[in-house]
């Protein structure tokens, strides 16, 4: 799978650099990223898919999961 993260504050920002990861036999993957210091960010969108869009900052993966910012 390929993964990229974007900050969300009502609209998604450009994606981070892409990361490729192999899923474990249990089917889980752990991702860690540095958050942005923007108080308007309410969540991060984790974009993922089996194929890469192969363009820097492109978020056109097959799936997305929105992760709320914890306070």
What does this structure look like?
- By secondary structure, this protein is mainly β.
- The protein has no helices and 4 strands.
- It is 0% helix and 31% strand.
- Strands 2-1-3-4 form a 4-stranded antiparallel sheet, with no helix packed on it.
- The model has no long low-confidence stretch (mean pLDDT 83).
Write down the overall geometry.
globular
Number of helical runs? 0
**Helix-strand pattern:** EEEE
Oligomer: single chain
Helical residues, percent: under 10%
Biggest pleated sheet? 4 strands, antiparallel
Structural class: mainly beta
Measured between the Cα atoms of the first and last residue, the distance is 29 Å
Strand arrangement across the biggest beta sheet: 2-1-3-4
Uncertain regions: pLDDT < 50 for 5+ in a row?
none
Q: Could you tell me the strand content as a percent range?
A: 25-35%
Cα Rg: 12 Å
Averaged pLDDT, please? Answer: 83
What is the number of beta strands? 4
């Amino acid at each position: 799978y390929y993964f990229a993260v974007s900050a969300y504050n009502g609209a998604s920002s450009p994606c981070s650099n892409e990361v490729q990861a192999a899923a474990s036999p249990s089917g889980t993957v752990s991702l860690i990223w540095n958050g942005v210091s923007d108080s308007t960010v309410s969540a991060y969108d984790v974009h993922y898919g089996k194929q890469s869009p192969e363009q820097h900052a492109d978020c056109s993966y097959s799936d997305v999961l929105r992760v709320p910012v914890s306070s």
